[in-house]
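We modelled each protein-ligand pair independently. The example shown here corresponds to the NAP entry; the chain sequence is given first, followed by the ligand as SMILES.
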Amino acid sequence: MISIIVAIADKNNAIGRKGELLCHLPNDLRHFKEITSGSTVIMGKRTFFSLPKHPLPNRRNIVITDITGEQFEGAEAAYSIEDAARLADEKKENFIIGGGMVYKQFMPIADKLYITHIHNVWDDADTFFPEINSNEWQLSAIEHHQADEKNPYDYSFAEYERKKEFIIIKN
Ligand SMILES: NC(=O)c1ccc[n+]([C@@H]2O[C@H](COP(=O)([O-])OP(=O)(O)OC[C@H]3O[C@@H](n4cnc5c(N)ncnc54)[C@H](OP(=O)(O)O)[C@@H]3O)[C@@H](O)[C@H]2O)c1
């Protein structure tokens, strides 16, 4: 199973700026850790190197790069999207954790989306998440949270399942 996990801003689906996240939301980082711990996480090379601590601990890390033969300390390398999908654990949930290039390519084959909707708009973002098409995706859970002294914006944890008629049959 392939799931996508991402934090996106309202209105323009922004996810990043200048190689970094848009903001620091500690509750979202905790949520991300709870959901992905013990699982395989798959990411693009830029996201891997943007992590304050890489590889992510307590997870199997897979990093995608175009540079055949490149290796990453503490992580497995994949040299295409297909290669990464092949390395994924067939019996468990695997998480695509970014960034923009990688989300876009996995969106057509993902089974589930874990989206943190950050209720703020960034006009200076440079990396975006694809549109979540309501013909393809069904909201299955949502939990709203208010900003507080540590988390500067309102946010919602949402889960979307792929609608059955859009399931892509894989060989
Ligand atoms: N809001 C969130 O939840 C979230 C999560 C993660 C990341 N982000 C943000 O997203 C931004 C980074 O995203 P990004 O789009 O710039 O980079 P990215 O997707 O993290 O990584 C791009 C790199 O991955 C490799 N790659 C991608 N597709 C490939 C393919 N089909 N075959 C082989 N290699 C492939 C390439 O590496 P090579 O150049 O080595 O070929 C490419 O340069 C940052 O701002 C980050 O903070 C946000």
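The beta strands are 2-9, 14-16, 40-44, 60-64, 76-78, 94-96, 112-118, 127-128, 137-145, 155-162.
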